[in-house]
Structure prediction request, 160 residues.
Amino acid sequence: MKTEIDEIRNQKPPSIVISKPPSIIISEVNETTPEKEIKQLSQNVKENEPNEFNTKEYLIGLFTPGVVLILILMTFDYLDDKHNEWEEEYRDNYYYEFYDYDIPPEPINLDLEDELLILGIWLFTYILAIILAFGTKNNHLGLGLLTFPLLIFMLILFNL
Prediction:
């Protein structure tokens, strides 16, 4: 004799797929679970995960290049001011009768070529960081890195 419970057990599951929370899906996996079923369950977990915008990565990508560029420009300005101070001090101390004294080493002088070389290295590293961010699937970091040059480009474009 079949009871109602046996009939319910023998029925086919409904065609509507009800998604389970990931914690329930993971608890169903044990040592005897076939590999194919584990792959299907992991796919269900990936589909159930929320696709959120990672604000932290985006902000890191947005502010890092600007901060680094400002630090580089501040360093150039500082070295230029120091060079002017050293040059004045050199003129005051060693300009007259310089042949009687040992000539001190020339102070650091960053020419335009040196500054462009440093900025070129920074730009090359920046492009590599963008490629690496998108290559490692850190899309939010890559978007943050791309936002800064786009904002600069828009500022230049609209001010002309």
User: Anything to note?
Assistant: The two ends are 89 Å apart (CA to CA).
